[in-house]
TrEMBL record:
GO terms for molecular function: ferredoxin-NADP+ reductase activity. Coiled coil: none annotated. This is ferredoxin--NADP(+) reductase. Residues 8-215 form the FAD/NAD(P)-binding domain. It comes from Mycobacterium kiyosense.
Length: 1033
């Protein structure tokens, strides 16, 4: 029998571990994807109450992440996404053991998960460790981050030298904060008392000492390299200590090289310096009543030819004078009253997350596994614990008494805790701190004492929202086209983009003032001025067609396909394509020509269908062409392999027809013939093109239409929720708490994020939620960007290179489906330099930009389990480092084999993984839903109109499909639904809806990149409160 009653769970701790546990319980939409689907742990109704002993949530995100690393605080947004779920409640300033007992929670709830972290310190067992002036890194970090437990910590900064014992990332954080210029820290959320103390600090040197060699140091490469980028701070390393450790293994080479560079340049920096010492074991802290120095001995672990051994150089010891010693030797859990505790490991006593002797009680995070891993490691840890809980619930192993109802639970908690801070109170604290920070151009000014936090919670009042007629979430081309159409039609439009640059897949990025790289626009079809192709038609209707210049790829070969034993070019016409294939595979010539003819029939027939892909009326124009209609329907319903079977193609010839699979990244077994035909028709109708000024020029011109017609654009404005009341849109709320009112929202985010994160399953029909969760996503891509100091267009045509290391393309996707990467899978090489034949709008002549892409698994497990939403710490995972290095090396080998003239001329390269994509775009899968036969067509892809009144969709998740042309056309389709008129029909008829006279002039120095950035705004909430403060004062 399936249990259907609501399961009520208490989560104790509001840090990363508790947040992940709550999200797994409530089925958040950002879980690990197995074969492209959201991996949900249960369908059972669950309610979660989160308890936190402090008034504020976030745990170490608020109290542990260094203030000069704001990017690592993104994890807090995951907590915020919970706060709009009606099944979630927050009880801050409630401590287990003080206000409520563990036994009471077990009596009140069906299950309790303890995620209380590690709030104690391991013992440094050397003489003098208890002297005044010796503090733990946990205390010091809490002090500068404004943790109420440590706001009154006595920190003596009067001496000229401080010592940090330990060589992990926390040790480097501590050293960096001590050495930083206070003017830099003044722009962060560092606690006021710490900022004042550091402004008076006399410390000029911070010595970081580690017992082990630099090859075994726990700090990450990125954190180590960051030290060398600190302005005005010298980094000192003793080359002799590095030499004692021997040769570095592969994964330690980058760390070793960074330290060698520091050792060779000891005078770098200004008046302050950080010295890194290795093989330096503390044996005593010197001083009578307060710290005066650290005595050390030269001992530690080093690598030798025969393995790792202990180095013990008798008599090699010394004293480093100092007035402050900070112990950064880890964290340790503290007992929870009423629960069994493992004193040896410093964790709750448990088995696979189940707390021993306490049925229904569980542990996750550091209190479960000890202080190991990065923030994102808690995601899998919490998932394992939640699975154990749900398995026990399904097996009837939870305590049999019924949990209390929600109202009774609330009353019980408030009876025992006199100053509960709920979500409204947290919002008030957050708003008050941000307001105070706004006045000083800082992210926030933290309250650092419990009474002040409670007072702020009780005194806060929300600010009323602004209103727009239409809000567009996301600035991908679908969203920008919709916004441009609506703004040009006289609507009040606001575009909200979480990134700092507009454009989505059309974005570019630049490096070193010489090179520009395109993220997603590589080549498009049919951009002949004045033609009826989609892109020129949309741009013409918006009045900007003549403001964009296009470079045409080589008509004899827009792509050059390199197979293990064959090479052929893909011309931009059907007959030439068939001829090249027949010449390359003479044994399959007849079958290939017949196959290309059938694809042509399908592709050209698709041009005649109605432009209403959300309806079966799409095929009405073919009612009088029954044969053509039957062929098109068959092409949609059957995978491309069926066509190959009918024409009896050999495996090698099949690969030739699948050579452009990089354009959709869908396994052949799931690729409909219609998709292949439509893609070829897109390029063969009127040639292949690339925007001469890069993909950013598309977003820039659309942005100018929006702005010149009274629209508003805001970047770095991430939306937390689409607000719904009684089944209709009322506005949006940003992650900083700002509320903006509207009756219409167009979401350019992908379907999973739109419905499962921004709207929430509670506002949707169950079948809609199931449908969204069932959408398969395609595999992701690994991108490598290469800069060269030669012009490769001098000797090569305007072509892309498509490499296939095997003839059986399906094998590549079978491997990907099983979480494996295929080093022989497809690799696409695209160069803006080649496509524009060396014409540069940015950088200097004689240099080349090259981009390479290949398919890789998107699953977190493949990349080492990190979570980009927790900040960039995932990059420090050994698995991540190894995977990235391995794939990048393979990509570079294949690029150099194809473009050998680059040998010796590559001056810069950088790679992006699926986790990189997610960190910047909130998605690891850039293609949208998989373009498979069961996910394309009326009723299979999402309509732009949703079941929520006032909510519309734009972008690759909709029936208009993916790709630059179809996404832009889809943007017009969405705007048409909002306005109630067919804009594309009007555009084809020659109507221009924008006021061309209002568009800004494009002079010689016009730069599309500049147009797409600089739209950051503090937000109306902060501005209103700032004005109110001025008025009141």
């Amino acid at each position: 029998m399936v249990e259907t009653s609501t399961l009520r769970v208490a989560v104790v701790g509001a840090g990363p571990a508790g947040t992940y546990a709550a999200r797994h319980l409530l089925g958040a939409g950002d879980g690990t994807y197995a074969d492209g689907r959201v991996a949900l742990l249960t369908d059972r109704a669950i309610e979660v109450d989160m308890f936190e002993r402090l008034p504020t949530p976030y745990g170490l995100i608020r109290g542990g992440v260094a203030p000069d690393h704001p990017e690592k605080k993104l994890m807090g947004q995951l907590f915020e996404s919970l706060t709009r779920r009606p099944e979630f409640r927050y009880f801050g300033n409630v401590e287990v053991g003080r206000d409520v007992s563990a036994g009471e929670l077990s009596d009140w709830y069906d299950a309790v998960i303890y995620a209380v972290g590690a709030s104690d310190d391991p013992v440094l067992d050397i003489p003098g460790a208890d002297l005044t002036g010796c503090v733990s890194a946990r205390q010091f970090v809490g002090w500068y981050n404004g943790h109420p437990d440590h706001a009154d910590l006595a920190v003596d900064l009067s001496a000229e030298r401080a010592i940090v014992i330990g060589n992990g990332n926390v040790a480097l954080d501590v050293a960096r904060i001590l050495a930083h210029d206070p003017e830099i820290l003044r722009r962060t959320d560092i606690a006021d008392h710490a900022l004042k103390a550091l402004e008076r600090s006399r410390i000029r040197e911070v010595v970081v000492v580690g017992r082990r060699s630099h090859l075994h140091a726990a700090f990450g490469c990125a954190e180590l390299e960051e030290l060398g980028q600190l302005e005005g701070i010298g980094i000192a390393v003793d080359a002799a200590e590095l030499a004692l450790a021997g040769s570095p293994p592969g994964l330690a080479r980058r760390k070793h090289d960074a330290l060698v560079s520091y050792a060779s340049n000891p005078s770098a920096g200004g008046g302050r310096r950080i010295a890194l010492r290795f093989l330096t074991t503390p044996i005593a802290i010197e001083g009578s009543e307060k710290v005066q120095g650290l005595r050390w001995a030269r001992t530690g672990l080093v690598d030798t030819a025969s393995g790792t051994r202990n180095l013990d150089l008798a008599g090699v010891s010394d004293v480093i004078p100092a007035g402050l010693v900070i112990r950064s030797i880890g964290y340790r859990g503290s007992p929870v009253p009423g629960l069994p505790f493992d004193e040896v490991r410093g964790v709750l006593a448990h088995l696979d997350g189940r707390i021993r002797g306490c049925p229904g009680s569980y542990a996750t995070g550091w209190i479960k596994r000890g202080p190991t891993g990065v923030i994102g490691t808690n995601k899998k840890c919490a998932r394992d614990t939640v699975r154990a809980l749900l398995d026990d619930a399904a097996a009837g192993l939870l305590p049999t008494q019924r949990s209390l109802d929600r109202a009774t639970l609330d009353a019980r908690v408030r009876e025992r805790a006199s100053a509960v801070v709920d979500l409204h109170g947290w919002r008030a604290i957050d708003l008050d701190e941000r307001r105070a920070g706004h006045l000083e151009n800082r992210p926030r000014r933290k309250h650092t004492r419990i009474p002040d936090l409670v007072s702020a919670a009780r005194a806060g009042h929300p600010v009323g929202p602004q209103r727009y007629e239409i809000i567009v979430i996301g600035s991908g081309l679908g969203g920008l086209v919709s916004a441009a159409c609506l703004a040009a039609s006289g609507k009040s439009v606001l575009v909200l983009e979480q990134h700092e640059i507009l454009g989505g897949c059309s974005q570019v990025f630049r490096r070193k003032g010489k090179w520009e790289f395109d993220c997603g626009v590589h080549y498009v079809g049919g951009c002949v001025p004045g033609s009826d192709s989609l892109i020129p038609t949309v741009l013409r209707g918006l009045g900007v067609e003549d403001r964009i210049e296009w470079s045409r790829l080589d008509d004899d070969g827009m792509d050059t396909v390199v197979l293990p034993e064959h090479t052929f070019r893909v011309p931009t016409n059907w007959d030439g394509f068939a001829d090249n294939l027949a010449q390359t595979f003479p044994a399959d010539a007849t079958g290939l020509r017949n196959c290309v003819a059938e694809l042509r029939l399908i592709g050209e027939g698709a041009d005649r269908i109605n432009d209403v892909p959300h309806s079966v009326r799409v095929v009405l124009p073919l009612a009088r062409r029954p044969r053509e209609l039957a062929v098109i329907v068959r092409a949609l319903e059957q995978p491309i392999g069926r066509m190959f079977d009918r024409h009896r193609l050999s495996p090698k010839a099949r690969t030739a027809l699948l050579s452009l699979i990089h354009l959709h990244n869908t396994p052949p077994s799931r690729t409909p013939a219609l998709l292949v035909a439509a893609l070829l028709r897109h390029y063969f109708k009127a040639g292949a093109y690339f925007p001469t000024q890069g993909g950013q020029v598309l977003a820039a011109n659309l942005a100018e239409v929006i702005l010149s017609h009274g629209g508003t654009i805001r970047t770095k404005a991430r939306v937390r929720s689409i607000d719904i009341q009684a089944g209709r849109v009322t506005g949006v709320t940003l992650t900083d708490g700002e509320a903006i009112g509207t009756d219409i929202v167009i979401s350019n985010a992908d379907a999973h994020r739109t419905f499962l994160d921004l709207v929430g399953p509670e506002h949707l029909r169950r079948r809609t939620v199931d449908r969204i969760r069932a959408f398969r996503r395609p595999h992701s891509i690994f991108s490598t960007y290469i800069a060269a100091d030669i012009d490769i267009a001098a000797t090569r045509p305007a072509t892309n290179y498509i490499l296939h290391g095997r003839y059986d393309v399906q094998t590549t996707y079978d491997m990907l489906d099983h979480g494996q990467w295929d080093p022989r899978g497809w690799l696409a090489i695209s160069s803006p330099t080649l496509k524009t034949q060396g014409r540069k709008h940015f950088g200097i002549p004689g240099h080349s930009s090259i981009e390479a892409f290949t398919a890789v698994p998107a699953e977190y497990e493949f990349w080492g389990g990190g979570d980009p939403m927790a900040g960039p710490s995932y990059k420090g995972s050994p698995t991540y480092i190894q995977r990235k290095a391995e794939i990048e090396a393979s990509v570079m080998d294949r690029v150099l084999d194809t473009l050998p003239e680059l040998t010796g001329h590559i001056v810069w390269q950088e790679s992006a993984t699926p986790l990189s994509h997610e960190r910047f775009t909130l998605s690891r899968m850039p293609y949208g839903p998989e373009n498979a036969k069961d996910q394309i067509g009326p009723g299979r892809r999402l309509s732009v109109r949703t079941e929520i009144d006032g909510l519309f969709l734009a972008g690759v998740s909709t029936v208009y499909l993916y790709g630059i042309a179809f996404t832009m056309r889809g943007g017009v389709g969405t705007a048409s639904h909002v306005l109630g008129r067919d804009l594309l029909k009007a555009f084809w008829a020659g109507e221009v809806i924008s006021d061309r006279a209002s568009l800004p002039e494009h002079g010689p120095g016009w730069d599309p990149f500049d147009v797409c950035r600089g739209h950051v705004r503090k937000g109306a909430r902060g501005e209103q409160q700032f004005a109110a403060t001025i008025t009141a004062g």
